[in-house]
Write a structure and sequence with these properties.
The protein is built from 13 helices and 8 strands. The chain is an alpha/beta fold.
Length: 340
């Protein structure tokens, strides 16, 4: 190992170099000592003063302004114009869309047969699990405070990994919230199943609203006898699902659904991300995405590819489905006498 040596430009090192700073030694070595800032005179002469700062003429007194007395006749038209302006502002604001119409019964027996949450069945292990998921989703929506954050996408990399199962249970869990409502939209246009799993039917749905600019989305929403739960079917398939989702019409419809309704959540059941393109288009319209992975089935590479396709969504989380082992040994629901 070589010992560091202190070098000077002229090959000589004196005692003064040891005392001088690095900048001073550099100045002496490269001949910068002769450089100095230009001298600045303390005071400018009279000619320079005139050149740089000519004398200003005294400002003239402003002409007196004639004031008009505010008479009652002049004030009345102004007072009459204010309500008209307020009315114009109210007419320009879009009113919040309210869901109404007949409430259709949802078969509780059908829900139990499919292993879904029974809204009348009380506490259960499944309900407790989705309460945890629901709390995190609602907390994110409230912290963001935007209408986009209240739109949640349920997706999976491949089919048969449980995305529809999770979308239904999440919507059922959210519907139990006080003073709130949830709209479950079937956006799996290729293989819609939301309505059939609830025992409902409809000839129109989400795609019909996107394809027809004159239609109103609230006219196609189906009410249920589960308090707070509304459903919108997939509608007729067009073969141009991704193109419709990428259009400006989709923004108009979704903004209409969430405008002025801070207690309304929208849950989308989308096609698998690696099997159809609508999932990546829907990701552009939501603020949260839950990527469903089935335990011992979904691979890591598939999850990474799906996350890449859903990257337009600012908040993507992993939801593990069909897990039979818990390292902590937790068994939600057994405390209440359910789910042993």
């Amino acid at each position: 190992m070589n010992k560091p040596t202190k070098l000077s430009p002229d090959g000589k090192a004196d005692a003064k170099d040891k005392r001088d700073s690095l900048l001073e030694r550099a100045s002496g070595a490269y001949g910068l000592d002769k450089l100095a800032p230009a001298a600045v005179p303390v005071m400018l002469d009279a000619n320079a003063k005139k050149k740089f700062a000519p004398a200003r003429k005294p400002a003239q007194e402003p002409a007196p302004v004639e004031r008009r007395d505010e008479t009652r006749t002049q004030a009345e038209p102004r007072a009459q114009a204010e309500p008209a302006m307020e009315g114009r502002r109210r007419s320009d604001a879009h009113p919040a869309v309210q869901f109404s119409g007949e409430k259709h019964p949802v078969s509780r027996e059908l829900l139990r047969e499919q292993g879904l949450i029974d809204p009348d069945g009380g506490a259960s292990r499944l309900l407790e699990e989705f309460r945890i998921v629901k709390r995190q989703v609602l907390a994110s929506a409230r912290s963001e405070g935007t209408s986009v954050a209240r739109r949640v996408l349920l997706c999976s990399p491949h089919p048969d990994e449980g995305k529809t199962f999770c979308a239904l249970n999440l919507a059922l869990a959210m519907a139990a919230e006080r003073d709130s409502e949830v709209l479950l939209i079937d956006a799996d246009f290729g293989k819609p199943s939301i309505l059939s799993k609830l025992g409902l039917s409809s000839d129109t749905g989400f795609m019909d609203v996107l394809a027809d600019p004159a239609s109103h989305v609230e006219d196609h929403v189906i009410g249920t006898d589960i308090p707070g739960l509304w459903v919108l079917g997939a509608g007729a398939r067009t073969g141009r699902d991704s193109e419709y989702l990428a259009s400006e019409r989709t923004w108009e419809v979704l903004n209409r659904l969430t405008r002025g309704t801070p207690n309304r959540m929208i849950v989308f059941d989308s096609p698998p991300a690696l099997a159809a393109t609508p999932a990546s288009e829907l990701a552009k319209h939501v603020g949260q995405a839950l990527l469903v992975a089935r335990a011992d089935v979904t691979g890591q590479v598939a999850l990474e590819d799906a996350i890449d396709l859903l990257s337009a969504c600012p908040d993507i989380r992993l939801l593990l489905n069909d897990a039979t082992f818990s390292p902590s040994g937790r068994k939600f629901g057994s405390y209440y006498g359910y789910g042993d």
